[in-house]
Structures are given as structure tokens and as C-alpha cells.
Design goal:
Helix content: 25-40%
Bound molecules: alpha-D-galactopyranose, zinc ion
Number of helices: 17
Structural class: alpha/beta
Largest sheet: 11 strands, mixed
Mean pLDDT: 96
Low-confidence stretches: none
Shape: globular
Length: 701
């Protein structure tokens, strides 16, 4: 077992408690002072200790260009603070006042058909426009100057859900500069984008346009670089906001990310933030999808968000809904108990806050039916309010969790540019399912309570015992060597079909797949890849003697690579199709470690059996042993105490056998060996003395 020391991170803000609150928009209620007063007593009743203010408040802050109106915000912040409620203060760049768009249309985004937006909605500014950047810096600076030292303010919230793309002339020119900087000369770019294809060779950078639906769509290197440019430009826009704040305030800055949102490489953005926060809206109780499956997908996103920050410290759950959203096809109520469970679930995976969109429901416009803590009825006698309030009371007892770490012996690779390249490739079949596949490989660990870090290929691998790299299609030079070093020192590595096909610019590796030396490391050679129709299955079975001692048969689907073992040994083989007898799973000892290659997409049952066996072999043991179906666990730790979250995603009660004495963190009762019962959607946080390795899987024996 590689040694990792659990730590307690410093609290993320000057308020060392679990932050409970959410978006609060007093600017929508300025003509109803009675309601603003009621808000305070309702916040107290709901055990809310923080409000996120001014997200879209620009027209209330600067009703005319250069004419400011801060009185209402002064009063809001003071009123909150005097009543013991802290403020997360937002910058208003996510939506613009009408005067701004009228005076400076260049702030409005241009679509990929070259059409400039009209004024309206939100999240639609040009991120390049020097005018808009200057205007944003001005208002942000004014806010920071005025409130940067307000005792109630604990955190800056930059803009809101940065996203989308702009194709205006300024952005096109900036894209060309980005390419000049990256490639230096046009011949290098032509080579890396393979531009001799279809006569696409450029003579100068000035000839290059972004990918456009009625223009270029077929140059994969261009598509990738455009997405990287969008990330860079959005980050630059965000840094402009941070710099404006930093003139006057040292408080931490965050922005609310969106989990698996594909449009931005969040690892690049997160590097600039003091802490990561994100907006989580799982589809609980979806038709035909078990809540335990939704829980795995949600946990994956929490772990990804925790790990996009280089520190992997706790994050903030900046938004969630206390009841329903208004933008799904079917906006179903959270069943009683699910609100507390899903909030605790976020904390289990590293959140130090539970925040909502929003505190009080808007009276008009398109979010008037979106769930909120306070409904249009305006009082506390609702099921939703009661559940929020009960949760708030519980969160008030969990201070000791603040800053505790998530220690993982297992890491799973998930890279945005890999996703872009996989989704862009033409060929195979349409069932790419990169994020879904990563979640399927993650599932066993998530259910068993074995922590997993979701990391990028540029993150360090040392410290992990098991590294899982599903569909690592994009493997730049150096990737083979990095993985070899990981296994040399004792790590176990798992890769799958579609590994090492292309470099970072989407040029295929020559000399056989998997490229960059991974063929040698895995001891295999991939010759072809078969794509199946959706219902088709290929039979497969474990070899009689195999290192994982697995038995029986299973099926492959969607994508089946035809591989040969060079120095690896087969663990399982295909049993039907013309490739019957060829290896499907292989194993090889590499240095002090092991490498496994899974050459086809298999079902979740097979992955469960595989990872259960692999965890056993690697000495990674689930902290509570086998849990009943639908019950998941996760562990936080400060190195002295472990906090094991056990969560029941079933609508029935279940009994969990327990093995060692613990204290229930919420009730402070001590219990022992006889196990415990969880209510439908119930949870318990077990506190027990730290056991080396329990956070993230303990050492066998
Ligand atoms: C996003 C936004 C919020 C709100 C919610 C509704 O997360 O950030 O302003 O619109 O969606 O679910
Ligand atoms: Zn633009």
C-alpha cells in the first residue's frame, strides 16, 4: 500500500462551518420591504447561515451607465450579517443591463452562423471584447472596494456558470493568435492538423476560421484547438474578474461549475480558483433508472469536481434544488428524505456546503415554478421547508467535518480533450459513451465505499495503488513512460479498448496501437476493432487458469478490439464471432505492478466481478465489507478520525451489518457490532478512530 496521509484542510472560508444557504435575490423584491424582513426570520427557521447575493443584479447595481445604486446591497449585507447570516457575494457578469447592450453591441455574443444575439436572457456575452472585460472589471472593482472587507462577506462568486462560445470577429482574431502562439509557424499547424487532406493546407494563420456548421467541420485538430481556445478565453475572462477583485479583497474566489459539462476543460479554470464549487441537479426518481444508478453518476461528478482543483480539497455544493427544477422533461418532486440524503451525499464526496437555487421563488419570468426553500405561499408550513430546516439543524452539528480530506487509493482518468476527440471521431458506431463508461468503471468502488479520485492525465499518479484509464483514446508522447513508471513502483493499471490511438492533436499514432509504448507495457497488439449494432452481443469467458481466479462467462457489446498477446497472458477470451479464442482481458506483470487490458466493452456485472477481484488482489478492502444493494458509502478523514457515510438510495429500509464500534455523528450515540437499520433514503455518518487505509480502502489483513 502506498502511503497517503489524510489531512484536515484549512476551512475554505472565514466561516468554519458547513455552509447552508443559497442564491438569494433581494433585487427582485426591492419594492416589498416586508418580504425582505420576512426572509430573515425564514432563514433562521430554516437554519440557513449564508446567502449568495447579486448574481444577476447588474441592472440594480448600475441602472444607467456610470450611475450606481449600492444602497440596497449595503442594506442587504448589513441585515444578513446583523442576523448572523454570511454572504457569498457574486459578480454580475452573467447577465447584462439593456443599456450596456444598446450602447455596446459588441458585448453580445455571435453564434456559429455569424449572427449577433439580440439583448436578452443570460450567459451570452463575448468573452473577448475589451470593452466588456473593462466594464466587468469596473463593476467588480466597485463591488470589491465597497464590500471586500465587509465582515459578513466570506467568499466571492464569479459570474455564473461560465459557458458557451462566441464567434465574433474579435474572437476569431484571438483564436488565430492562440494558434500562432501554439504552433509558431503555419507549416507545423498544417502538419499537426493533417491539412494536406482535402486540400486544406493554409498559407497563413489569417486564412483560418473556427469550426463552423456551414464551413469547416472535418479537421479534428481544428475542432480540438477551438475547444481549447474557448477554455483559454473563458479562463482569461474569469482572470480579468479575479484581478479586479484582488485590487481590494483577499477573500477566496470561486465560480459555480457544472460537473460533466463538456464545453470547458474545468481543470484549466480550476487552477485559477481558491476553491471549486458546482451546481448539482441529479434526476432522482427518474422513470426506469434506479436512484442507486443516479447516485453513482452524481458521486462521480462530485469526485470529479473535488479533483479538478489541484489540491483536491473540499468543494462547495453551490446550487442544488430543495425540491424540483423547471428545466427537465419531467420535473419530479424529491421524495421525502431524498433532499437530506442527496445533500449528505455531496458532503460524503467532499462538499463543505449545501446551497440551493434558490431561497425564495421568483414571482415571475421563466423560473417561477422552479423549486425554492420558500414557495409563493410565503411561509414555513411546507414539506420542502420542513425538510430544508431539519437538514439545516443536522448540518449545524457537523462542524468537525469541515476541511476533512477524501483520501483515495484508487484513481480514474477522465480528460475533457479525450472526450472531445472521442465524440468527434468518425467511424466505429455512435455508442461512444465515454463519460458513461468511466462511471461504469467507477461504480463498484462507489458502491463499496472505496474512495476514488477522478484525475486528469497530467495529474500526478504517485500515491495511488490502482489507476483505471477507460477509453484513453488520446495519449500524447510521454503517456506510456508515465504509466510505466507508475507500474514499476508497484501500481496496478487498467486500460480498455480505444487506448492510445491518437496524440494530443488527434493524429493517429503510427506503428500500431496502443501507441506511445503502451503496447509494450500491456504486452499486447491491437490489430482491428469491431463495432456492433446495439442489441448484438459477443460471448466471452474467463480462461480456466487466470490471475484473478474469476470463472464463468459474460458478454461483450458495442466495441470489440481484436488483440494479440505479445508478452501478456489472457485472463478472458472471446467465445463467439470469427475472433473466438482471441484475448479479451489480459494481464501482465510490469515491474512491481500489474497491468490489465480490457479489449471490449462489457456489462456492469462483469466490471463488478472484475474490480472486486482486482481490489482483493491489490489489498484494497471496502471499509464496511459488502453492503446491501442500493446502499453506498464514502469516507472522509482527518487522519485521527474517519467519517464513514453510509447512504440508502432505496425506497425501503435496509439493515447494514457493521464490524467495529463507532459513534453516530448526528446522534452522538455509540453502537457496535450488531449493525444498524437505515430508513428509506436514510443515512448515517459513522465516526470511528482512523484506521490506516480505511479512507479509500484499507490494507488487507
Ligand atoms: C443554474 C443557474 C441558476 C438557475 C438554476 C436552475 O444552475 O445557475 O441561476 O437558473 O440553474 O436550475
Ligand atoms: Zn466574441
Amino acid at each position: 500500500m502506498k502511503k497517503q496521509n489524510p489531512v484536515r484542510f484549512a476551512p475554505l472560508t472565514t466561516f468554519p462551518h458547513i455552509v447552508h444557504g443559497g442564491d438569494y435575490n433581494p433585487d427582485q423584491w426591492l419594492s416589498s420591504p416586508d418580504i425582505l424582513q420576512q426572509d430573515i426570520s425564514l432563514m433562521h427557521k430554516a437554519h440557513i447561515n449564508s446567502a449568495t447575493v447579486a448574481i444577476f443584479a447588474w441592472s440594480a447595481l448600475e441602472p444607467e451607465e456610470g450611475v450606481y445604486s449600492f444602497g440596497w446591497l449595503d442594506e442587504t449585507l448589513d441585515r444578513l450579517y446583523e442576523n448572523g447570516i454570511r454572504t457569498v457575494l457574486a459578480t454580475p457578469s452573467g447577465a447584462r443591463p439593456a443599456w450596456l447592450d444598446r450602447n455596446h453591441p459588441e458585448a453580445m455574443r455571435v453564434s456559429n452562423m455569424g449572427v449577433r444575439n439580440h439583448h436578452g436572457v443570460r450567459h451570452n456575452h463575448c468573452y473577448t471584447s475589451p470593452y466588456y472585460r473593462a466594464k466587468v472589471a469596473e463593476i467588480d472593482g466597485k463591488l470589491a472596494e465597497r464590500y471586500g472587507r465587509h465582515p459578513g462577506v466570506i467568499l466571492w462568486h464569479l459570474s455564473n456558470e461560465y459557458g458557451g462560445e462566441c464567434y465574433c470577429d474579435l474572437c476569431r482574431a484571438a483564436f488565430r493568435d492562440f494558434l500562432r502562439e501554439k504552433y509558431g509557424d503555419i507549416d507545423t499547424l498544417n502538419q499537426q492538423w493533417w491539412n494536406a487532406f482535402w486540400s486544406h493546407t493554409f498559407r497563413s494563420f489569417d486564412e483560418i476560421e473556427p469550426p463552423l456548421p456551414n464551413g469547416e467541420t472535418s479537421t479534428h485538430g481544428l475542432n480540438l484547438d477551438w475547444k481549447r481556445f474557448v477554455t483559454r478565453q473563458t479562463t482569461a475572462f474569469m482572470k480579468n474578474e479575479i484581478a479586479a477583485i484582488r485590487q481590494y479583497s483577499d477573500l477566496p474566489v470561486t465560480t459555480n461549475l457544472m460537473g460533466l459539462y463538456p464545453g470547458l476543460d474545468y481543470r484549466v479554470l480550476a487552477r485559477e480558483l481558491d476553491l471549486v464549487s458546482w451546481d448539482s441537479y441529479p434526476r432522482w426518481h427518474a422513470y426506469g433508472v434506479g436512484d442507486d444508478v443516479t447516485a453513482v453518476q452524481t458521486a462521480f461528478a462530485h469526485d470529479l469536481m473535488r479533483c479538478v482543483h489541484p489540491s483536491k480539497k473540499p468543494f462547495f455544493l453551490m446550487e442544488s434544488t430543495p425540491s424540483v427544477v423547471n428545466w427537465m422533461d419531467v420535473n419530479k418532486l424529491k421524495r421525502p428524505g431524498m433532499h437530506a440524503l442527496s445533500s449528505i451525499h455531496a458532503i460524503a464526496h467532499g462538499a463543505d456546503s449545501v446551497q440551493y437555487f434558490q431561497f425564495r421563488k421568483s414571482r415571475g419570468a421563466c423560473e417561477k415554478l422552479h423549486g425554492a426553500v420558500v414557495d409563493h405561499a410565503g411561509h414555513a408550513q411546507t414539506r420542502v421547508f420542513r425538510e430544508v430546516s431539519e437538514l439545516g439543524e443536522t448540518l449545524g452539528k457537523l462542524d468537525e467535518l469541515v476541511g476533512t480530506a477524501t483520501v483515495s487509493r484508487v484513481a480514474l482518468l477522465y480528460d475533457w480533450d479525450n472526450r472531445w476527440a472521442i465524440e468527434d471521431l468518425r467511424g466505429l458506431n455512435k455508442r461512444r459513451r465515454y463519460p458513461e463508461t468511466c462511471q461504469e468503471h467507477y461504480r463498484y468502488f462507489c458502491e463499496a465505499g472505496i474512495n476514488v479520485d477522478i484525475i486528469g492525465r497530467d495529474d500526478p499518479f504517485d500515491g495511488y495503488d490502482l489507476l483505471i484509464a477507460p477509453m484513453m483514446y488520446m495519449a500524447p508522447d510521454g503517456m506510456g513512460e508515465k504509466m510505466r513508471r507508475f507500474t514499476e513502483s508497484g501500481g496496478t493499471l487498467v486500460a480498455t479498448y480505444l487506448t492510445g490511438y491518437v496524440n494530443e492533436n488527434d493524429l493517429c499514432h503510427l506503428g500500431g496501437w496502443p501507441g506511445v509504448g503502451l503496447d509494450e507495457l500491456f504486452g499486447i497488439r491491437c490489430e482491428e476493432i469491431d463495432a456492433l449494432y446495439e442489441p448484438e452481443r459477443v460471448e466471452a469467458a474467463y480462461c480456466e487458469e487466470n490471475v484473478l481466479r474469476l470463472q464463468g462467462s459474460f458478454q461483450a457489446q458495442d466495441l470489440c478490439e481484436l488483440i494479440h498477446c505479445t508478452t501478456a497472458e489472457p485472463v478472458a477470451v472471446y467465445r463467439s464471432e470469427f475472433y473466438a479464442g482471441m484475448p479479451l482481458i489480459t494481464h501482465r506483470r510490469a515491474g512491481k505492478g500489474h497491468v490489465y487490458y480490457i479489449a471490449a466493452r462489457t456489462g456492469e456485472e462483469q466490471l463488478h466481478a472484475f474490480y472486486e477481484a482486482l481490489a482483493r488482489q491489490t489489498g484494497i478492502v471496502a471499509p464496511l465489507g459488502n453492503l446491501p444493494a442500493g446502499v453506498h458509502a464514502a469516507v472522509r478523514s482527518d487522519g485521527l478520525q474517519d467519517y464513514i457515510f453510509v447512504m440508502n438510495f432505496c425506497s425501503d429500509a435496509v439493515t447494514v451489518p457493521s464490524t467495529r464500534a463507532y459513534t453516530d455523528l448526528c446522534t452522538k450515540e455509540t453502537a457496535g457490532e450488531d449493525g444498524f437499520t437505515l430508513k428509506p433514503y436514510g443515512y448515517v455518518i459513522l465516526k470511528r478512530k482512523h484506521h490506516d487505509g480505511d479512507s479509500g480502502g484499507s490494507s488487507a489483513g
